[in-house]
Please model this.
Amino acid sequence: MSDRTEPEGGRLDPSLDAIMSERRQLINLAYRLLGSLADAEDVVQETYARWYAMSRRQQEAIESPGAWLTKVAGRICLDLLRSARARRERYVGEWIPEPLPDRTEWAGGRAGADPADRVTLDESVGMAFLVVLESMTPAERVAFILHDVFRYPFTEVAEIVGRTPAACRQLASSARRRVRASEGAAAPAARRAGIVREFKRAWEAKDVHALIGLLDPAATATGDGGGLVNAAPHPIEGGERIAHYLADLADRADGLTMLERTVNGQPGLVAQQDGVTLAVFAFDIAGDRIKHLWAVLNPDKLGPWKTG
Model:
């Protein structure tokens, strides 16, 4: 491979920086498409492996390396999404997207993590948004993320999805309707943080009535243990049932510390014991009530949260 990275005179390939500068964009794209940072990193690694498997002449014939990398990464993600359905059927319990900390709270627990690789946290990585994406077909998800989030024209989306631009436009429109149907009246950021803080205090106090007051009557709570740790096998429905379930958990928890943290760009909670993160909680808040609560306990999904 030295002939590709070190041309005559032993000088570094001047195009290397341009190629590697696409890495963060690819990580951001793949995470939104797959809901897993570990899978996103694998996709980007495979994408670069395919680039460097080409000869120098083949590389130089590519007019836009960035577009080529995006196309390859998008197609790999599409293939993974198509196979994910079968994998999720074998998954123990409920599957929740991998939660991400704020840039300032990144623990460095993931080996080799580079700050440049970290995902940009905005509304397109909110847990509620990612969960809606899970309900889409692979083609819908790819077309919607590429066009609506990353602003790729449908002509380019079509090359990745393998359909006509008109068909991709329809896919994105269908996905857009799903997102809009799931959206409620979002509370201001400060109010969301306040509700999560009140929820934390009520949970620590085992105050069932206060918890019921903070939860929407039709709220759902979903846990993801991946079969590696105990978690409710199915979503718990109803604010009152969730409140009693949480109070029971608080009774059985020993030495657990709840910390207010940013989870996928939104106010959330992290449960630690002896400084080790055991669970990350994300919330969907509409008005003054919690509509959805997601608890990720699967240790394989807590890499960036392992310490700190």
About this structure: The chain is about 50% helix and 15% strand. Residues 65-90 form the longest helix (26 residues). The mean pLDDT is 88. The two ends are 39 Å apart (CA to CA).
